[in-house]
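Cross-check.
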Amino acid sequence: MSEQFMKKKNWRLRAGIAILILSFSMTPMILLTPFLPVVAKTKIVLTTTWIIIGNITFYGGGFLVGKDLFSKYKSFLNPKNWFKKKSEKITPPI
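Predicted model, tokenized:
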């Protein structure tokens, strides 16, 4: 592979990981919203906005890092796979 292609791919990977980390920061924002000193209607709008932004950034980061890496991390986030033994885990095809 050419050096230029690798730099382009490396940039996309770093940006994708950064965006995925940003998407995980939306969850604490959702949990803190009920404690804000604002009207209930504003809390509802804020919570909905955090959920939408979190989903958009999660899948946007997944698009940048690529299908294989995204499906690997998505399986780590699935609660069904948290307590399985390593031999039982199904790994995605490469």
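Residues 3-81 form one domain. The chain has a mean pLDDT of 81. Passed to J.P. for a second look.
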